[in-house]
Amino acid sequence: MPTTETDEHKSLREAVAALGKRHGRTYDRETLWSEAAKLGYLGVNLPEAYGGGGGGIAELSIVLEELGAAGCPLLMMVVSPAICGTVIARFGTQAQKQEWLPALADGTRTMAFGITEPDAGSNSHRITTTAHRDGTDWLLTGRKVFISGVDIADATLIVGRTEDSRTGRLKPCLFIVPRDAEGFTRRRIDMELQAAEKQFELTLDDVRLPAEALVGDEDAGLLQLFAGLNPERIMTAAFAIGMGRYALSQAITYARDRTVWNTPIGAHQAIAHPLAQAHIDLELARLMMQKAAHLYDAGDDVAAGEAANMAKYAAGEACVKAVDQAVHTLGGNGLTREFGLASLITAARVARIAPVSREMILNYVSHQSLGLPKSY
């Protein structure tokens, strides 16, 4: 695994950082999305044959991190090109690839991702949304919650469960559900957190789908699901690292300029050391994120799973600490709209909670990495 970024990756960082700087914290999501698409950033991970950049999650994570560091992250990048685009590119039919990948790459269409349920959370083994055959069609029934951007997405990649033809057991399968499908309804969730992308509860009431709505092999089970979940964790890490970097940069600028008793407050170790620690934590999280992206792009899904979970955990913790320290550094100013940090106090918690909680990641590492027995 490379320990330093390539010249191409450095150039990509610089270019995306410049784009983010032009838009800044008061960005318009649609305008930035459109410009990022035209520059080829949204589809940088998708195959060149379908209009993408031919790169991988390593490149896409750079894009999201740098936009986040400029204060203008695009949350739907985690979902549309990273999860949905990756799954379709790896497992979709030729028709699905031709229909979706070019449009996802150029930003003209987006796709949401629906896995979380009221009682199951993101536990794929407890998902109750089920699909059964009705002739050549599928009928999909169930509920989903905390699904991002459904109102702006052309379709949602829904995780359901079907009966394995060999064992009779239920296993996860992925279906493309158009936004206007009959029986597919949404209700916006009233969130305290204000974000450009809204959250929704979905109801699927015998949604009839054609056979070609199924993505990949119906008996592939967890293989295809984790092909999307690993990029999701890596991109969530990028989202968190970018947010943490933005908060830290605001604090650093303030600590350099704010003078008390003829001395910049950044000269005091009580201010400087916590900021230095926040920087260290963010850099360490980025290294694990880069490792996870490298493993995933190299096709090592098992090792990538461990690294992606670790990266998401480390980035979430680093982000929360960086935001907290940034606000503390600015004092009362850290809670003003002018500096744009107060809203990050709530937003930073998302990196700890979604798409999987830090406790479930600790469970994963204790079971899968350390070989300890399960408690559930």
Helix content: 40-55%
Q: What shape does the CA trace take?
A: globular
User: Radius of gyration over alpha carbons?
Assistant: 21 Å
Please describe the biggest sheet, giving its number of strands, its sense, and whether it closes into a barrel: 4 strands, mixed
Based on secondary structure, the structural category is: alpha+beta
Count of beta strands: 10
- Percent of residues in β-strands: 15-25%
Strand order of the largest sheet: 1-4-5-8
Query: How far is the first residue's CA from the last residue's CA?
Result: 35 Å
Q: Which spans have pLDDT < 50 for at least 5 consecutive residues? A: none
Mean pLDDT across every amino acid position: 93
Count helical runs: 10
How would you spell out the order of helices and strands? HHHHHEEEEEEEEHEEHHHH
Secondary structure layout:
Elements: H1 7-23, H2 29-38, H3 57-69, H4 76-91, H5 94-106, E1 111-114, E2 130-134, E3 137-148, E4 155-163, E5 170-178, E6 184-188, E7 199-209, E8 214-215, H6 222-257, E9 259-260, E10 263-264, H7 269-297, H8 301-330, H9 342-353, H10 358-369
Parallel strand pairs: 1-4
Antiparallel strand pairs: 2-3, 3-7, 4-5, 5-8, 6-7, 9-10
Helix pairs in contact: 1-3, 3-6, 4-5, 4-6, 6-7, 6-8, 7-8, 8-9, 8-10
